[in-house]
Write a structure and sequence with these properties.
Helix content is about 30%, strand content about 5%. With about 100 residues, it is mainly α.
Length: about 100
């Protein structure tokens, strides 16, 4: 009878693997995610506006747009463009739910 040795080291999940959401496979932002960020260093307001307009257009043609919106709603504080919607843009207050009068 052969015994297999098991490692005594604790199994630590790969932190990069935990960042991958298989639902977003094939997204148009794949490999270009910085272009979909809320803001970039040394970027003027005009440059940011043009970049985010381009990113929103890319999102409208993305095959996983709906799944991306779902993933954004699962995030505690999403930032940037998710599913064609802007989240956490500097200088823009977040939407607050107000009770109906």
């Amino acid at each position: 009878m052969t015994r297999h040795r098991t490692s005594r080291l604790p199994q630590i999940p790969d932190p990069i693997a935990s960042l991958v959401d298989d639902r977003l496979t094939g997204a148009r932002c794949s490999g270009r995610h910085p272009l979909f960020d809320a803001e970039l260093e040394d970027e003027t307001a005009e440059q940011r506006s043009a970049r985010l307009a381009w990113a929103r257009t890319e999102c409208t043609r993305c095959p996983v747009q709906g799944l991306c919106r779902t993933a954004a709603h699962e995030q505690e504080h999403p930032l940037g463009i998710w599913g064609g919607k802007v989240h956490g843009l500097p200088g823009r207050p977040g939407r607050k739910d107000t009770p109906a009068a």
